[in-house]
Tyrosine--tRNA ligase
Amino acid sequence: MTHSSDFLRRLDARGFIHQITDAAALDAAAAKGPITAYVGFDCTAPSLHIGNLVSIMMLRHLQQAGHRPIVVMGGGTTKIGDPSGKDEARQLLDDEQIRANMASIRRIFERFLRFGDGPTDAVMINNDEWLSQLQLVPFLRDYGRHFSINRMLTFDSVRLRLEREQPLSFLEFNYMIFQAYDYLELNRRFGCTLQMGGSDQWGNIVNGTDLIRRVEGREAFGLTTPLITRADGAKMGKTAKGAVWLHEDQLPHFDYWQFWRNTHDADVGKFLRLFTDLPLDEIARLEALAGAEINTAKAVLATEATALCRGRDAALAAAETARTTFAEGGAGEDLPTHAVPAPITIIDALIGLGFAASKNEARKLVAQGGARIDGVAAGSDTAMVGPGQKVSAGKKRHGMIVAG
């Protein structure tokens, strides 16, 4: 459909929209004046990861289109654990761990959003402010009656766990009720009328729009993004080394840049639209590059995506490290490092740099000729490497052994 609001036009053109509860009404509301929308993020680790980036970029586009974003930190819901997309219950964290994770995560959002007291400045709020104040009997009496167990059992977050005969605790089952109550509380406090999230959150989001309609008699909307997959069918952000963290404390700048540089040719245009601020006409030009020239587009993607998340200086430094390492055969200053007091075997070096998850995996890399020391194939598992030497795994992963 043709959208009249700048906000939905942006999202549609860049591939963010999967489902909307009432697209025409939301479009009209966004065209009429500033709206307030939120996305919730649980605090299960010190950093968010690439899988959260689509939602963060939606909040960025919301603000750029003249609307107000709310970032809800799940200080309360983290104590419960979202069952969506999970095969088992999350490990529960204590209050101190949650607070520390929340403080660390905030630094990520400060790079993507403008916070302040203005009408379109972003707001960050902890849902523990209201969830921990709820009393069970009054809560069930006032709000529990609006939720149908029959309907809740049909939502993917519950249905899939039950179909696989995997345990689903009563604690997790209540997650969707508390998420719906979050939306109601934000509607009351901030006039929030839109919740956004991934496609796996559709059932939870619809619960919230229904609760606002039933309790307050007001219209509210939900919008979800499609599941982002790579050209090979794998889920976006899944790598052999694990999660791609947004925080530099969990993943060095160069590794983050290199993740984007390694994008499949067929994904370059899609990822430029989703994960950068580049104009669409420039993205179309880059997407049309063919043959070896597509590597230019990949480098632009890596630099622009890294600049948003880590800062322009970090992105340019990572790009220069890549140029030095790959184009000139040198060893850039921003490569991953592993500090050792004395020379170690190539097996230990590969594991220490994160290029192999186990000794068996490292031995296999050596046997296949994929492990190199200063550009020369490691001849055996017992080959030694010391401070000042570069270790490579395949053509695209490089690191330095340093004294420590």
